[in-house]
């Protein structure tokens, strides 16, 4: 804080409280209290007495760098908002947008994408267009929590496909995005979709139909052993013999995240070799 004051810079949200902050540069960072008769101006240029309020900015302050969000004060307050709400507040908006990632939900009725904006700690700049995951499941609290961690730790955008019947039209529309083995496109699915009587083997069949057999599929289930037994019994009837190599089954969220990260690294390594 001392170094900040010595340079005349603010230490909280760009607000400089006292005129005497600027004196700190020449007196080892000491900030004297304003005198009772010292004249102070708000960001509109109106004069205030130093004993009238502590909500002010000093003379000579560049108000383009002094902002407060308009909704920071409740409607029932009698506090006078004296900060000039000017366009420079877009600096904070720009920062928010720089960490904004778009996630999508696919419904079985329309197959149209409904975009939801969620702010998280992952920069959109490092989430590339070919680094993404399609998650065939509902946006439950558990899934949303894992989604945010995947976005941060794997630098990967996540899209939710709410039910299995939406998968085929999704692949038809976006299949080209994952058609290359160098594309970091992955799928997360559940162990069983009761409403349509489908399981991860059916995911593999749809990928094969779209010539997307190389796309990694991670199965997130709370009954790993039971699912493995079920798939073993069903695989031959569906004509899939390599399901053990193509399906990675996990029970815990940490294992799911680690798998997504690992797949991204493999894809990046393969791409660099080419």
Any key phrases for this structure?
single chain, 274 residues, Rossmann fold, 7-stranded mixed β-sheet, 8 helices
How would you characterize this protein structure?
The protein has 274 residues and is an alpha/beta fold. The protein folds into two domains: 1-98, no CATH class; 100-273, Response regulator (Rossmann fold), CATH 3.40.50.2300. 30% of the residues lie in helices and 16% in strands. It has helices spanning 2-6, 90-98, 141-153, 167-174, 200-209, 224-234, 243-246, 253-273, and strands spanning 39-41, 47-49, 100-106, 113-119, 131-136, 157-161, 184-189, 217-220, 247-250. The strands form two sheets. It has a seven-stranded mixed sheet with strand order 4-3-6-5-7-8-9, sandwiched between helices. The protein has a two-stranded antiparallel ribbon with strand order 1-2. Helix 3 packs parallel to helix 8.
Beta-strand fraction estimate: 15-25%
Oligomer: single chain
CATH superfamily of the largest domain: Response regulator
Mean pLDDT: 70
Q: What is the fold-level CATH name, i.e. the topology of the largest domain?
A: Rossmann fold
- The SSE order reads HEEHEEEHEHEHEHHEH
Summarize the structure.
The chain has helices at 2-6, 90-98, 141-153, 167-174, 200-209, 224-234, 243-246, 253-273; strands at 39-41, 47-49, 100-106, 113-119, 131-136, 157-161, 184-189, 217-220, 247-250. The protein has 274 residues and is α/β, with parallel strands linked by helices. It folds into two domains: 1-98, no CATH class; 100-273, Response regulator (Rossmann fold).
């Amino acid at each position: 804080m001392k170094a900040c004051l010595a340079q005349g810079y603010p230490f909280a949200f760009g607000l400089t409280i006292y005129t005497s902050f600027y004196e700190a540069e020449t007196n080892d960072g000491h900030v004297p209290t304003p005198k009772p008769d010292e004249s102070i101006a708000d960001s509109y240029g109106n004069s205030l007495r130093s004993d009238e309020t502590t909500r002010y900015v000093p003379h000579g302050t560049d108000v383009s760098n002094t902002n407060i969000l308009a909704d920071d004060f409740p409607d029932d307050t009698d506090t006078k908002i004296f900060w000039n709400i000017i366009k420079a507040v877009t600096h904070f908006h720009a920062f928010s947008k720089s960490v904004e990632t778009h996630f999508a939900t696919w419904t079985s009725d329309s197959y149209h994408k409904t975009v939801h904006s969620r702010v998280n700690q992952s920069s959109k700049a490092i989430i590339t267009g070919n680094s993404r995951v399609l998650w065939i499941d509902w946006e439950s609290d558990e899934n949303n929590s894992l989604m945010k961690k995947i976005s941060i730790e794997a630098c990967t955008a996540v899209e939710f496909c709410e039910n299995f019947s939406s998968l085929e039209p999704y692949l038809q529309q976006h299949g080209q995005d994952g058609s290359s083995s160098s594309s970091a496109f992955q799928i997360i699915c559940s162990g069983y979709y009761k409403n349509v009587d489908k399981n991860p083997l059916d995911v593999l069949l749809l990928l094969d139909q779209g010539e997307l057999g190389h796309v990694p599929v991670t199965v997130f289930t709370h009954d790993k052993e039971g699912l493995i037994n079920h798939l073993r019994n069903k695989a031959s009837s569906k004509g899939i013999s390599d399901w053990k190599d193509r399906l990675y089954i996990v029970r815990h969220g940490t294992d799911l995240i680690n798998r997504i990260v690992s797949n991204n690294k493999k894809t990046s390594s393969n791409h660099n070799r080419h």
